[in-house]
Specification:
Blueprint (H helix, E strand, L loop, with lengths): L1 H21 L3 H19 L3 H21 L4 H19 L1 H14 L2
Helix pairs in contact: 1-4, 2-3, 2-4, 3-4
């Protein structure tokens, strides 16, 4: 069981490096992740489900970019999942900061 998990992690790491090579390095990946985070934050202004949808759209944009640059389907899927998770986490930051601010203001 543990060997299967380690093998899956190694394959995901390999496909991530293929996706990074297809996107021409880390700068484009960071830019696409920030775009997904912006979409998630804008969706978060509506509700939590829209925040998730915004992050998924950002991940789909990365998927399209990796496929367009001959990265392969598996690499595009791994990049989409990774960017979606990162974009959702970064897009939730304004919401979490607002909650912290409200909690600080409510203390007597």
């Amino acid at each position: 069981m543990i060997n299967m998990l380690l093998d899956a992690m190694a394959n995901a790491g390999h496909y991530w490096s293929v996706a990074m090579a297809a996107l021409d390095g880390a700068v484009m990946t960071i830019a696409m992740t920030l775009l997904g985070a912006i979409l998630a934050a804008i969706g978060g202004m509506v509700n939590g489900r829209a925040r998730l949808y915004g992050a998924i759209v950002g991940g789909m944009l990365v998927n399209i970019a990796v496929k367009a640059m001959d990265g392969g389907f598996a690499a595009a899927l791994v990049a989409m999942v990774a960017v979606t998770i990162a974009a959702y986490a970064l897009g939730s930051t304004p919401f979490l900061l607002g909650l912290m601010k409200q909690g600080r203001l409510r203390k007597p």
